[in-house]
Write a structure and sequence with these properties.
This protein has helices at residues 14-24, 41-52, 65-79, 95-106, 123-129, 148-154, 177-187, 217-220, 247-260, 266-278, 281-299, 328-339, 367-378; strands at residues 28-29, 89-92, 112-117, 133-138, 159-165, 193-197, 223-228, 241-244, 306-307, 315-319, 341-342, 358-362. It is of the alpha/beta class.
């Protein structure tokens, strides 16, 4: 039997590749973006509580009502944005599922989708699988800022969707107020929709505020806003995300969602609803991770790596050009095998594999892990 691939040039994701390599060589894994510290015991207790209460069957397709109400309440408190939990909040099996459902809901054959690079590697394949054409626009280097002149040149009569990500993975940059002004001018009077990946919405540094698409009434009416509980509660393996969107857009997203996963984990949803209503961990996350960022940067100060600006997320970009001229994919592999620290080569997040001789390191780790990794990096 001959099978023709819909994604012939897509292989194993770089996150799996580097994590597997780290495991094989017993390296410290600062590549894949997951914490090595525990979920709150109080949150785990709530999950166990609902499991023992027998809440182990299918949740409603759109999400447990209590969780959708808690998400709507949190969004209103943070962004002064009113979403109807019944028709405008949808719980998904992770943010990636929400992203795929949103793209599938609105992208048709011949549509163009603007993707800002470097980009999370799930965006472009979803566009291709739905018959769309990805139009790539690079951020500036080394400050990783939006160039709105380039974005405007990328817009055509076929542009259906603009995908944004802030705080940005892998670079750690954050959209500014001026970016929002430019964005509003770009889409005004058009039919361009926005897919805003905001999974790191609670991790911003040095007093910055998150510029959510939910904050602006005009942008809100054309935006899918996607977020996740995995990054907020150190529970990436639970895969519970959600999407906020106006009712007509949510209705189309739900048509896709019901055939992707139908429903997400019931006891975890119920536990999250309780926890979100009684805890303020999300309001303390920026301070928590800023200390991690500052510790990691201070520990590698004597190394030959040069840190680039990190305004949000839990990723630090390090320039290694003073160490090696090797491509980032080669140097990342060498560093994992020979020096015992795994990182992500960002060139894989560009469609033309742009290589700036930088690597992405995850600092969502215990202090002891960061200190051990930094010692190894300082010896390179």
């Amino acid at each position: 039997m001959t099978l023709s691939s819909k994604l012939p040039d897509v292989g194993l994701t770089i996150f799996s590749v580097m994590s597997q390599l780290a495991a094989e060589h017993r390296a410290i894994n600062l590549s894949q973006g997951f914490p090595d510290f525990d979920v709150s015991p109080a949150l785990i207790d709530r999950v166990v509580h609902y499991m023992r209460q027998g809440c182990n069957q299918y949740a409603p397709m759109t999400g447990v009502p209590a969780l959708r109400e808690a998400i709507a309440a949190k969004t209103a408190a943070l962004y002064d944005a009113v979403y109807d939990p019944e028709s405008e909040v949808t719980v998904t099996s992770g943010a990636t599922e929400a992203l795929y459902a949103a793209i599938t809901a609105v992208v048709r054959s011949g549509d163009e989708v603007i993707i800002v690079e470097p980009a999370y590697d799930a965006y472009a394949p979803a566009v291709r699988l739905n018959g769309g054409r990805a139009v790539f626009v690079p951020m500036t280097f080394p400050d990783y800022r939006m160039d709105w002149g380039w974005v405007r040149k990328a817009v055509s009569a076929h542009t259906r969707l603009l995908i944004l990500n802030s705080p940005h993975n892998p670079t750690g940059s954050v959209l500014t107020r001026e970016d929002i002004v430019q964005l509003k001018a770009l889409v005004a009077g058009s039919n361009i929709l926005i897919l805003s990946d905001e999974v790191y919405e609670h991790i911003l540094f040095d007093g910055r505020r998150h510029a959510s698409m939910a904050c602006d009434p005009e942008l809100r009416q054309r935006s899918f806003v996607v977020s996740s509980f995995g990054k907020t509660y150190h529970a990436t393996g639970w895969k519970i995300g959600y999407c906020l969107a106006p009712a007509p857009m949510s209705a189309e997203l739900r048509k896709v969602h019901q055939y992707l996963t139908f429903a997400s984990n019931t006891p975890i949803q119920m536990a999250l609803a309780d926890y979100l209503g009684s805890h303020t961990d999300h309001l303390e996350l920026s301070d928590f991770y800023q200390k991690k960022r500052d510790l990691f940067v201070s520990l590698i100060r004597s190394s030959r790596f040069r840190p680039l600006a990190c305004e949000g997320t839990y990723f630090q970009m390090l320039d290694y050009s003073a160490i090696s001229d090797e491509p980032d994919t080669v140097f990342a592999r060498h560093m994992t095998i020979a020096h015992g620290v795994a990182a992500i080569p960002p060139s894989v997040f560009y469609h033309q594999l742009d290589d700036h001789r930088v690597l992405r390191f995850c600092f969502a780790k215990n202090d002891a892990t960061l200190k051990e990794a930094a010692e190894k990096l300082c010896r390179i």
